[in-house]
Amino acid sequence: MSNHRRARRLAATAGALVLAALGPAGPAASDESASAADQKPSATADARLPLNRLQVTSTRTDSDRLDRPTDIESPGDGSGRMFITEKEAGAVRVYHPDSGLAAEPLLDIGDRITSEGNEQGLLGIALAPDFEHDPALYAAYTSADEGELTLSRFPMQSPDQASVPADGEEVLLTEPHSEYTNHNGGEVEFGPDGYLYWSLGDGGNAGDSLDNGQNLGTLLGSIVRLDVSDSCGDLAYCVPEDNPFVSEPGARPEIWAYGLRNAWRFSFDPADGSLWIADVGQGSWEEVNHLPAGEGGTNFGWPCREGSEEFDAERCETGADYTDPVFAYDHLDGNCSVTGGVVYRGDEYADLAGGTYVMTDYCSANTWGIRRTGDGGYTTEHIGELPIQVTAFGADASGELYAVTDLPGGLHRVGFEALPPPVRCTVDYTVDSEWGDGFSASVVVTNTGDEPIEDWTARWDYTGGQQVTTAWQADVSQEGTTVSASGLDYNRVIPAGGSRRFGLQGTITATNPAPEEFRVNGSVCEG
Question: Which of 65, 132, 173, 464 lies 20 to 30 Å from 321 when distance is taken between CA atoms?
């Protein structure tokens, strides 16, 4: 992880529905989901490529421009489609890699949402776990009715129907959110246990001015866990009996985890069912949290804490058990808001990025990879940049990653590539002679490591306007201020402890300062 980024590696109405708190233990699909997860590779198994050599890439798809997209879901029905939400239009669009974006939306609920605030609108969708045989679409949105946070189900007759009638909406759960327009949360996902999870922000404004983050009497500032299966009968949902607060007086039994500011995006690792939560920070720290499968009741500390730092000491409770994030980064380098994030479990880049959680920053496009280590810890590296204003990640049916960007709305395929292995080296640069407007120099590249350096290339920048005109014993070129020198057929390998010498001639305009830094095969030479 780059030090200059100062990123840290850190160890219906609710009242009527709560009556179902002691309903069935879980959906019928629960045991099947757990069994499938057990058969997948261990989430702690490292990918073959070291994380510090992983580089993220992206390719814009040929889809039409999207209207402020916020979520991506794949039905897994063999169709190859992906469903994408449009925040302000209140529409769910269908994309296929072969045919692009369908002209007409799959679902249009623009008449019942509000998007007056930047964080309001159609925020997320989830698809029924057995979508191919029992299709339904679940949506989280900000209602035009005083900004209520709303979770609804839209039944479907068949998985391939071209349009889902909006008037078939079944409202499952609402939460008042009328004071402020920000911090709506909005992720909705089915977990491997078959239950539906939904994130709600702390109610908005700043500094948790409504005191919701540590208040178990409201759903704001939490992630809820619901049983929406047929076993609930006529009820909109049941509360799973093993939810952590079903027996706590005054607590909302739907709550699974709390102490969150605005968990805009969370996801489940398909390999082990663990939960990754990216919580948007206040003014200093953005954070990523990670919970093992089935672990509820966690308090992430907001507003006592932001990241792992104390935010408001007066609202820290003595003896409270706050859970620190596994990664936090500050607002330097243009960072402003975390966008999580999914664990890559596809086949195409399995040798490079398998088991890596990928997340980015909305403003700076800085992107990080996080992996679990065998000792229960985590390793994190900055792995490059994605396009700016990424609002969500998603995976297609084969596990390959995509990301959507806000303005302009775009859909991007996310990939990975390997950086060259790091090398240990020194470079001696000597100006042998100067005359008028010219100079000659000799360069010695030494391999100080224990392994040969194959196909070496040395690069440096001239800061005095120097221009290389000719060279010998190396293939030397210059683009702008950057000079690249590569070995020839007979000296392309530098053995361990060995050196390669070459020379060059160039022109100068005034001064002739020596280069400040040399890089060999991408690694800075520091000895």
Answer: 173
